[in-house]
Specification:
The N and C termini lie far apart (about 60 Å). The longest helix is centred in the last third of the chain and has 24 residues, at about 50-70. Strand 1 (about 10) and strand 2 form a beta hairpin. The protein has helices at about 20-35, 35-40, 50-70; strands spanning about 10, 15. It folds into two domains: about 1-40, no CATH class; about 45-75. The relative contact order is 0.08. Strands 1-2 form a two-stranded antiparallel ribbon. With about 80 residues, it is mainly α.
Length: about 80
Amino acid sequence: MPRVEPKRVGYKGKYEESFDKMLRRWSRAVNRAGIVTECRKRQFHVKPNEIRNSENSKLKRKKKLAKFKLLNEGRSKYSRR
């Protein structure tokens, strides 16, 4: 977990930034570390088979789109075949 200390100024160590700014810095650090997304992923158990199937379906879709783009390369929307 990212640790955020309030910024201090001077030799007495008075706080320079408000709590809202410090909270914003902390939330940015958490987002950069990817903690929230990982928690959402781990919220429910997903079977390994389902993970594999989703990855395979993503690959199939990519290949299909690439093939479609190759077939339609150079054609404009309004040109006749």
